[in-house]
Amino acid sequence: MNKESMSRRDALKLGALGTAGLAMLSASNAMAAAPTEKDVKFDEEYDVIVIGTGFAGLAAAAKAAERGYKVLILEKMGRIGGNSVINGGGMAIPNSSWQKKYGIEDSGEQFIKDCLKAGLGINHVELLETIVKRSQDALDFSIKCGAKWQDVKPAWFGGHSAPRTLVTDNMSGSGVIKPMHEFVEKLPGCKIMTRTKMDDFVMSNDGLSVLGVTARINYRFDVKLLSDDVENKTGEKKVYRAKKGVILASGGFSMDKIFRKIQDPRLVEDMDATNHDGATAGALLKAFQIGALPVHIDWIQQGPWASPDERGFGVAPLLTQQGLFKFGVAVDVRNGKRFMNEMADRKTRADAEYVILREAPKAYPVAIGTYNTFDTQIYPQIEKGLQGGVMKKFDTLDALAANYKIPLDALKETIKKYNEDAKNGVEDQFKKQTLKDVKGKEAIEMKGPFYAIRLVPKPHHTMGGLHINTKAQVISANTGKPIPGLFAAGEVTGGTHGASRLGTVAVTDCLTFGMIAGETI
Amino acid sequence: MRSKKTLLALGFFLILGVMSLVGSEVNASSPQLKITPELKEKFTLKPHHEKLSFKCVDCHEGQGDDPENFKAIDDKGCLSCHKTKQYLADRLKFMDNLHTNPHNSIHDGPKLYCDECHFEHKKSDNMCLSCHSNDVKLWMRPTP
Prior knowledge:
The complex is a heterodimer of chains A (521) and B (144). Chain A is α+β, with helices and mostly antiparallel strands and 521 residues long. Chain A contains 16 helices and 19 strands. Chain B has 144 residues and is an all-alpha fold. Chain B is built from seven helices and no strands. Classes of the chains: A alpha+beta (521), B mainly alpha (144).
């Protein structure tokens, strides 16, 4: 990282690590170019090297190993699965076998339209078309690897014009990662190394093709460092050859305190995010170093369904997305009024919350709903939310308003109007698409009890990344053509989701393009 | 019930105590490392290990005689006494019903490295807290 490209404050902070820190900075400057074949001696040789063990990495590895390739999978963390293993386990599939089974009408065109609307029209449509064509295959492949999906009517997530989201049996991405990890471990020729960090791509002598990677084994990620990628010197160096190529599936950078702030200065260092600690930009930057083409890097999505009353992802996203937001309301605590379509896309909702939080940083909006708003599969989570204190339960609206200091009469008026609109089948002020399901009934049941969660946006998904084609080949900025030997899938890639990703399309994106990378290589 | 447990525990510690004594005799040829009060303070032991009068080389086997150069002993070291990860998961099986067994979590099963959470010479750090900050105190005691 060049000092001039960082803010003075960041540079000072890194410098504050002392001379050792500065020495490290200059050391990394000295490594400006990727090593070439003549600079290294390969310790081991494989057909395929996969970087990362999330949905995309494991799907790619499983597919490649199934085809008979010898595959090495590198994971810098001690834990398998990165963000995927702590993810909510929802996968949106347009036109799926599940939708047909439960009589839901949908179409690929409608899915692309929904994605483009949330993505502000800047999505790379050919990648969305690929998802439409192949996501059912990706679902079937996950099932082949042992993943189990709840056999219920697909869930309806914000910004989607139809219910199209399947959820794993344990309501976590681990419902896919755990069986896929076991599947990969059992495949002959597949080897997973954790606590092994990829450092550099090894290039052919002409600098045009990727031949392998340098890495460090026994690497210990250090959460206390401002930039683990720059400062961490643990581990011992190894060089691995990849005869067919390298598949980069290293994920996004929502936890990269320096890089995310350079892209979006609102994301200060101490800001909480929903991601695991290892979600940094290191591997992405290495791909840029060898000429990979960047796309949409500064579109960082914030989850509008998170809560300031817990760390990280927590339980609030489940209880709001598959609960309070569906038939309930979110109100501005200062005036008791609604301020957004609770079922809009993430960017629209996060921006609406920010309007309030900029004016009054502690005036976290409150989502309110009654028992009827929760999807059946979310019932077990309700008690969890209440016990931990993230969600609160009140017998009356009076008690709820008093707790959050919401003007009572205004709140009652808001809910009265909202319920009337829902009951009469009239489109409400924010055109909420789910209200047609409660026509003739109360959306918020006035007999109570009432459930409430405070809201704050948290960095969640980095839309931008490497430019890939529909075969998961990474495109070179120097040639405009695929970089021989380099493939990428998942959050490290960009373009698919445009400015903002629709909920539960990440799993779809990662599994689909991971599978395709494993097929192409 | 309680007294039986205490007796068992006492017996366990006695046996281990004797074993560690025997061990120290067997290890007589290994590097002699004097455990000074300063060293004890710098590399504190967890109470349950302290009680067993562990010496540095009981864990840091064959790593020379300079504590500053000792390396982490990895899962293999821990499991040389604590059997297997599955065994540890089964010991907390009663927590499986509520999906709160840290040794067999919904996310990872019995597969995490011991030292994602447990540290001998510094405060342990419960990994579950990074997402379940409010729940962990309801689920389990502080990480030993």
